[in-house]
Amino acid sequence: MITKILDSIDSVMYYPILIIVMTIAGIYFTVRTKGVQIRLFPESVRLLKEPPEDKKQVSSLQAMLVSTASRVGTGNIVGVSTAICLGGPGACFWMWIMCIVGASSAFIESTLAQIYKRKNSDGECYGGPAYYIEGALHAPALAAVFCIFLIATYAVGFNLLCSYNLQSTFETYPFYNKATPFIVGGILAILTGYCLLGGGKRIVKLTSLIVPVMGVAYVVISLIVICVNIVHIPSMFVMIFKDAFDFKAIFGGMAGSCLIYGVKRGLYSNEAGVGSAPNASASAKVSHPAKQGLVQTLSVYIDTLLLCTATALMCLSSGVERSEAVSGAPYVQNAIATVFGKVGPTFITVAMVLFAFTTLLGNLYYVDNALIFLNKKKQPSETFMHVFHIGCAVVVFLGAIIPMNAAWAAADITMGGMTLINLPTCVILGKIAIDTLKDYEKQKKEGKNPHFHAKDIGLNVDELDFWKD
Fold this sequence. Notes:
By secondary structure, the protein is mostly helical. Helices cover 74% and strands 1% of the residues. The protein has 19 helices and 2 strands. The protein has a two-stranded antiparallel ribbon with strand order 1-2. A hairpin with a 5-residue loop joins strand 1 (118-119) and strand 2 (125-126).
């Protein structure tokens, strides 16, 4: 019954509400910025090589890597597989469209986060949507509600789903039985709790080093599978586009169509407009807020156009059966096994273990920021954080044993709540970010390395911690 209720809320939230809000916002930002996410793509790449103003501070590249690390995870594997199996191959096309359109939203939210970032006692910067909602929109109550949704998303929704996705990778093995989810959930919860409570620093350091390597290895292996099945590529693209524009199928069952699954899983994977990446963007030390906004568009592309596409093309080109029964990790494991045999599914399991573990811990980076905001900008007590982290470990355990639909719906609903607050806020405050972009381009045309002064675009410097001089 709970699953049915969650599914009902999920369906209404994404169609018609979220799909309309996301599309309008993305198109509006794309038009107003003259396609900044495409037009200034070369500039975005160039900015990755730019060192920070202060070598002790976080650079654009480092902030982008933090947000990319939070985006890249189980969603790139299981999310894409689920979209294709339940929505059809056309979901890939709508993922690509929402990625390109949504990248403009990523530019706006990250630029705003840079403008309204705050300075702590050590001189380091922090911020995010809660701070520009409070500082620019002057709506502290709405900022608090956003933080509550963020905590619900990253401490509950996403971690439930991450845990479920991990245990689902074991379904392909002969030893999998009814007890397996409990065992996997228990081990994962203990490890997560141990690290959150101050232990396991070596484990965290080791996994953070291995995950980027595993990400590259995953793309390479995907390309090998695609190359082996290269004769199927033309028919595969025909299938994607034919299904994407099968309007009878789309509008006949909208909630389960390739369009909706493409939007849902694309948003879950790249998080453009959700309001999560700005928390990382605010930590960068750059000479102009637009620099961080431009860099963040690349993070969206890396996640969806590279990693999600690698999964989609690998699965579809392999020709293995897709159905609800294999949706999730099994579909990807079956695809990779066509070339690598038994080694393939094992690789996916190892990759999922690493991705899931770092995602579980990385999600709580954003949660800490929200908790500090709700606690009147002060770090919560050590006792509170211990209790909170134990609760997070319990959520991880529950995620491994709940039904698939419940896990996805919980993540979709909490993430949707964040998006429905953040995107309208970005539309209202969009002119600030757009004027900031114009200032950046004006200085570039003059041959300068752009430096931002809030007064140049008419901002009240008394409301800001940075950009006053």
